[in-house]
Specification:
Elements: E1 7-8, H1 14-25, H2 29-34, H3 38-59, E2 61-64, E3 71-77, H4 84-105, H5 110-117, H6 119-122, E4 135-143, H7 152-166, E5 170-175, H8 179-186, E6 190-195, E7 203-208
Helix pairs in contact: 1-3, 3-4
């Protein structure tokens, strides 16, 4: 994906983004389920997001609304060719780093176990059912709680939709917060399915179909 309106994130921005993602997801239903203790979430999330960003920087596109970084958008362009060995190596390194961190910080292994049994909430394997490679997958779309209701999410979503329509692509994403579903439906998404495994938690899988040519 390409955009002239969004800020392309650099490696030196990771520190700010770790804090941004922590603020955005500290009360997210998924992370509340995986890491029930609030203090433990505050401690673990910045490092976990650093692992994610390192992997995404190699395999995806990371944008912010501006250099102020009030909102973040991480997109995987499934139509782009990629080096399969580099992809799986990067993914394996991130997984090993994450697992090692969880075990070190919580030797009881409770957090590690939650992440293990909750792995279906942490990946996007449901998208294999779409059989569509002309597709953008939104991995993260998050806005700083202090900047919400100021058009940041609209800007990020409009850019993804603009690019998808120009290139005739489907968009897929998932959310674990039921309150977000209506917002995405407003932008033309629909619920493709709901994942509910091991935890009393629903993952809403949404798609925006390739738009018919006028």
């Amino acid at each position: 994906m390409e955009s002239d309106r969004l800020y392309k994130v650099k490696k030196e921005d990771f520190g700010k983004l770790e804090q941004l993602l922590t603020r955005c997801f500290i009360e997210d239903p998924l992370y509340c389920q995986l890491i029930p203790d609030h203090q433990m979430r505050e401690k673990l999330l910045p490092e976990l997001f650093d692992c994610d960003l390192t992997e995404f920087y190699e395999n995806c596109e990371i944008f912010a609304d501006s250099e102020e970084m009030r909102g973040i958008l991480v997109v995987s362009d499934e139509a782009e060719p990629y080096n399969i060995f580099k992809y799986f190596l990067t993914e394996a390194q991130a997984s090993l780093r994450t697992d090692g961190f969880l075990i070190r910080e919580d030797p009881s292994l409770k957090t590690f176990w939650n992440f293990f049994v909750g792995r279906d909430y942490l990946n996007s394997r449901w998208t294999a059912q779409l059989h569509q490679q002309q597709r953008l997958h939104i991995i993260y779309l998050a806005v700083d709680p202090k900047a919400q209701h100021h058009g940041v999410a609209d800007l990020l979503l409009h850019e993804v939709i603009r690019y998808s329509e120009e290139n005739r692509m489907m968009i897929s994403l998932e959310t674990h917060n039921e309150k977000n579903v209506a917002m995405y439906e407003h932008f033309g998404f629909k619920v493709f399915g709901i994942v509910e495994k091991h935890f009393p938690l629903k993952q809403y899988c949404l798609i925006r179909e390739i738009q018919a040519e006028v």
